Amino acid sequence: MKGVSTIHRMGGGLLLLVILLTPFIMLWLGKPFWLDIFTRLVILAIAASSLSLLLSVAGLASFGHAAYIGLGAYAVGIPVYYETYGGAPWLASYSGWWHLLLGVSVCALFALVTGAISLRTKGVHFIMITMAFSQMILYLLVGLEEFGGDDGLSVDLRSDFSLPDLSLPSAESFGFPSLNLPSLNLPPVNLPPVSLPPVSLEEPWVFYLVCFALLLLVLFIVSKVKHSHFGRVLQAARQNEQRVRALGINPYRYRLLVFVVAGVFAGLSGFLFANYAYFVSPSMVEWTRSGELMFMVILGGVSSLLGPVVGASVFVLLEHFLSRLTVFWHLPFGLLLLMVVLFGRGGIIGMLKRDSQQ
Amino acid sequence: MSVLKTDKLTKRFGGVVATDAVSLSLQDKRVHGLIGPNGAGKTTLIAQLAGQLKPDAGKILLNSRNITRLSEPARVRAGLTRTFQISSLFNDFSVQENVAFAVQANAGHSFRFWSNVSRNNDINDRAHELLELLGLSNKAGANASALSHGEQRQLEIAMALATKPSVLMLDEPMAGMGAEESLRLIQLLQELKHDTTLLLVEHDMDAVFALADDLSVLVNGALIASGNAADVRQDPDVIAAYLGTTT
User: Fold this and answer.
1) Tens of pLDDT along B138-181?
2) CA-based diameter of chain A, in Å?
3) A contacts of B97 (beta carbons < 8 Å)
4) CA quadruple A324, A327, A332, A337: dihedral positive or negative?
5) What predicted TM-score, i.e. pTM, was given to this entire model?
6) Of the partner residues B76, B110, B112, the one whose CB lies closest to the CB of residue A246
7) Alpha carbon of A5 to those of A9, A34, A304, B101, B128: distances in Å?
8) What is the C-alpha radius of gyration for chain A, rounded to an integer number of angstroms?
9) Domains located in chain B, CATH noted
10) Which ipTM did the prediction report?
């Protein structure tokens, strides 16, 4: 058994390495567009991993996960829009730190409020209510005429992560928006700026590596949480809530917290999506998007940390190849899901594990 | 001294009175047997004591504290734990993990996100003791769902003991156990009596008579007799109820 689990761990490391290196190899082979595909793959893997925290660990089938992607994305789109075209100075900024802070806060708050209500329901009701909350966000975004309504909004440039300029202790230099308070008019300091070279997400390679690093971070946190006291409570409550209560724990607050954490991670993937596509639109929040995320988690396998990564990879690659063959690529896609659900319990990783044990 | 007490506890399901003004009193560190024919409302009574069902009327007192409005998890933390008639386990967890989780549930809050819980020695040591106590050590690594019926019953009790109850309610713990397993469990319960008050619902009369210091008899939701086991066994109403000749 020990040997098998080592093989699995090595397989997981190998998979991540392949994902990391493939775009570089493809560039060498003269196919630079693969970088674009793999960037999307990695961002989707982050979103799917965050959903797996709910679906696989806690057993909460949230059908509204795309809402957080939309919120995280608009937390980039709206400040950039205002910074470019003027208006709402308290919100306007190109700063990535501000976009992240905004996206994380909004997602956490939305998850806290909707989770507090949704988690009082179970089963199909939970699925429907999370979907309903996500539809509310969809229609809210469609209704935002200033930001393009259902046409969406172009993001003119990627989030700026200039490191703080050490010579000027003003608000802007820390990447936060100017508060424009008269009292903050500091006298100019005449020191040569010692700023470090800015990390520019405009460079596609840099952006890809940042996405990949964030995927590793999310996977690491998910893995830690899964095996912690907290994760044990969630897993126990997934299997037998009645018994958890009879042992002295009310799972509600634990579930609410994981709901918020998953929402924040999905918001992070939304932040990356807006930067990836230079575009945000309400279609990111459509319920089919939430469904696709569920698809990825189940396809990859719910029992494994890397299941969502496998699921997202298969999803993106199949979408790429099948859509070149036929516009009706959703049909073979759906059949594949049916096959995996019917014959491959534990998803793709589950099937591989069974093979390696035989 | 009365540890757990109910005062005219009543529960109705539509027109059916499942618990009919039951006033029960459990004495400290004694085994209190609760018997009665099928459908008498024994499990319904336990569910109300444990906090899974809300009574329509009446009070429940634990160590003189009114716990009638307390949630189920809060009652467990106050020292009142139950086991289930049908084993209620975590089937994806190993036997060890089942018990370890029960220990964890009663070792402070679980808002701990970083350390690996399966490497927590305090929890593992306590879980090991309990597995030893119930004779499940050699099954520690097995999946809970892979246990035999009797072993699942033992695991059920190991988990309940992990909550360090002052009052433990056992809902038919011997149901489906082999003779040898039953005997072992009876011995264990004898030992437990030294520091725990037990409420024992059981159909195995040999076990009840071997263990119970006090006895209550429930028929159609109402207590028809309650008191010292020897006295209750002589009660003509009880004999009539068990002979099936009640009107």
Assistant:
1) 999 999 999 998 899 999 999 999 999 999 999 999 888 888 88
2) 74
3) 232
4) positive
5) 0.88
6) B76
7) 6, 32, 12, 23, 24
8) 22
9) 1-79+165-247 (3.40.50.300), 95-164 (no CATH)
10) 0.91
